[in-house]
Predict the structure of Protein-S-isoprenylcysteine O-methyltransferase.
Amino acid sequence: MNSDNEGIRNRQHSNPLETNPVVNVPHGNIPNTPLASSTISFLLGITFCLGVYSFTSSLLGYTSFLPAQLAFFVSSWAFFHWAEFAVTAGWNLEKCSIDSYLLDNGAMYHVSNGVAILEYVAVRYFWPNLKTYPYVSEVGIFSVILGQILRSMAMIHASTNFSHIVAFKKRVSHQLVTDGIYGWFRHPSYAGFFYWALGTQLVLQNPLSFVMFAIVLWRFFYYRTRSEEAALIKFFGQDYVDYRRRVGTKIPFVP
């Protein structure tokens, strides 16, 4: 009987739907359960598909329930959060939890997105001509796609060395990654999100939110990289100092 129970526990522990992380304890408000994870994934998938459908329908001249710009924003937002969890589950399973969706990402994040949608809807209703510059949205689409690829590539390449939470204690298996995409960007996941987020506001042609996003994100990454790199210097010493001198962040005014 004991061996049977042990076998059941082992099978449960190896279940790919299990979201109890080995390293990071979930800290958000969303329950860390397979049901919660599958529900979120389903809802993000539905949101992404509806956004893509509306975006495509608008471009082809068919009736859609969302204008093309807002549809692209919604689908990009849904894909980003789904990809955060999917990449973590695929290449960094020991740190995978419900928090990996980054949906419980602080009030400021949700307020910023809400303000961006409100700005878009209000301006489009009162001054629709201000949303008719296709080249601005096209640059934004390019920035969103490039930023998403850059961030996902960074997470995949760093694998178990990547963490959504800044580590201040070095793990035995923690290695300094300086090759691949990290040979071009010192913090490629940060740069990816920075340009992804600004790209969404170019797609929406939101000048006020673009400036707000730029200021808030620059401030966040400026101070986050400082605290993170102080820890990395303790972990890796001169190796990280040399790497920091050699490779920039590629985020404006974040050395």
The chain is about 65% helix and 0% strand. Residues 1-17 have pLDDT under 50 and may be disordered.
